[in-house]
Structures are given as structure tokens and as C-alpha cells.
Input
Amino acid sequence: MTWTPALVEQVKGLWLKHHSGTEIAVALSKEHDMKLTKNSIICKMHRLGMSGKGGTRQSICRPPPVRRKDMTPSALEALRERERITRAQRRGANPVPAARRERPAPAPRPAPAVPARPAPVAPPRPVGILPSLDIPLTALREGMCRFIAVDPLDVVPAPCCGHPTAEGSSWYEGHRRICTVPTRPAAFIPRRAA
Output
């Protein structure tokens, strides 16, 4: 299908008279003995900048926003107040305009005393847990415990436990108890016959 200038003008005229895309497609398909669809009409109007009924794209879109640096001081203050009220409404608070809000003078605060930071203390190991052999993850072999012994963000590469593991496990027995949750057998619940 080819959009001739005469066909485009005819579609524009019907579009500006507030006919739907389906009505235009049916009427012009019969008149020009060609297959037009609602979507082809709507897409053509969109490409021509007439996506809204009876107007151009520019007339139905919002004007471009004014940049903050181009605003007058009073307009900028009004915008800030609207933004503050919007934020308060999102939080569920009842916003009070800044003009009516009483702002007490801030009391001078004494400088906070900075407590001395105690040296980090390693958490106590659970009973039955062997101390880590601190083997890098890249040096582990099959049958060695892969439990990361420290916070991996503190030490790179993170050292792993390295103790011998049980068959089919990634951890030795002490770490396996930490890393896994014991499973309970499913309780038998008899079903009633329908």
C-alpha cells in the first residue's frame, strides 16, 4: 500500500473531523479499493504529529519545564513548598505550609563526646568447632571444608576452613551443623476419600 498525497490529505481531513481510525479505514478501503486498517491510520497520524484527536502533538503535550536556575526566587520558593507538601503527603503526614509553621530557634548543641572504639573481638566459636586452617579458596582441593572463616569483605582472598569433610559434603561436621538445617520427616496426614 502506498500513501499518496491525496490519500494522506483525505485521512487528515477525516481525522480532524473526529472520525475514529476504524471508521476512516473502512471508508477509505471501500473508496480506494485497498486494504487499510485502524492501526495503519493511527500510525500514519502519529508519524504526521497528529496523534491526538483534532490537534498536533505539540498542542496536546505539556510545555517544556522551566529549569530551576531560570526561575525567579518567588517561583523557586513556591516550587520547593509544593515539593515539600508532596513529600509529606507520600509519608502520610498532614503538611502545614511553611508560612504557618513555627520554627523554633535551634538550641546550641554541645559537641558529642566521641567514645574510644574498642578493638574488635572475635566472636566465640561454638563448642565442637575446630579453628580454621586459613587456606585460600583457590587452594582448596576436593574433600576440604569450604566454610569461609572470616568476613570476606575484610580479607581478600577469603580464607576457608580446610579441614577434611565427610563424603558428599562441602563442610566438615562442625560447619555442616552451622550451614544446614536438619530436615524432619513429613508427617503422615491421611486423606479422606472424596
